[in-house]
Amino acid sequence: MNRSLIMLFGAMALAATIFAGAYFASQRACLMCRDRPQDALNWLQTEYHLSDTEMTRIRALHEGYKPKCEAMCAQIAAKKMELKSALASGTNVTAETKARLAELAALQAQCQAQMLEHFMTVSQAMPPEAGRRYLAEMKSQTLGLHGEIESSMSDAAGHEHHH
Amino acid sequence: MLLAASLRPPLNNMNHEDSRLASLLRSSRPAPGLPPRFQQNVWRRVEAAAAPAGTESWLDALAVLMLKPRLAFAVLTVLMVTGGLLGLHTGNQTLRHVAEVRYLVEVAPNSAH
């Protein structure tokens, strides 16, 4: 009885080791072989099965959008620095701080609007189904994140109220 | 003596009567037929009685089964292949996610602000 039990446990341990070994080895091999630094747009082509013609159009859109996005990012970064220096001067929320916050929020909204416009333009350059999927994914990844944070905050507040 | 011989029934006649009586008795008490699979059941009982009782539990049977080289090799092969395929699938999923994040960082850096 005991001998059989030991044999069973031994066999199970061996099986688990072999399974885990094969799993991690193949995962590692996959990551090492295919994770080369590559063009960020390659993901689009693979994920949405786009043709070279569609990719050429999307690449042009992407190259046109990138400088605008970088300029907006630079403005946001500068506004954040202004806000930081406004906050450093005192312990109260001054009128200047409020103004900087409002300007930052306006810039971020403008940036988001520009980003959404780009997503829509890119989705229109794709086949209809792929475009819908792309747009939904981009919205959930860029806007959904804020929604999740807000809902988690409101849930937490709700729980606190209940307690 | 002559009188005794005349009183005794004839021998032939008596044998005839006995056989008739025997057949009458047999027909009055019919022997029951054997139940279905009587012979198989008998042999099964004989084998069960001959086997040593309680020495081989299901655990032992499983251990014996696992030690069969062909089965052990097959199970290990299946485990290796399944583990490998699952690892490849997970690796691909991770790579897809990394590529998506790389794209998002280029087009939506503001979402990380």
Keywords:
heterodimer, A: 163 residues, mainly alpha, 6 helices, B: 113 residues, rod-shaped
How does this model look, in words?
With 163 residues, chain A is mainly alpha-helical. In chain A, 87% of the residues lie in helices and 0% in strands. Chain A contains 6 helices and no strands. The radius of gyration of chain A is 26 Å and the shape is flat. The mean pLDDT of chain A is 84. By secondary structure, chain B is an all-alpha fold. Chain B is built from 5 helices and no strands. Chain B has helices at 2-7, 11-28, 38-50, 58-66, 69-107. Chain B is rod-shaped. In chain B, 7% of the residues are buried. Chains A and B meet through helix 1, helix 2, helix 3, helix 4 and helix 5 of A and helix 4 and helix 5 of B.
Spatial gap, N to C terminus of chain A: 55 Å
Strand content of chain A: under 5%
Roughly what is the average pLDDT of chain A, rounded to an integer? Answer: 84
Globular, elongated, flat, extended or rod-shaped: what is the shape of chain A? flat
Oligomer: heterodimer
Helix and strand arrangement:
The complex is a heterodimer of chains A (163) and B (113).
Chain A: H1 2-34, H2 42-48, H3 52-88, H4 95-124, H5 128-142, H6 144-162
Helix pairs in contact in A: 3-4, 4-5
Chain B: H1 2-7, H2 11-28, H3 38-50, H4 58-66, H5 69-107
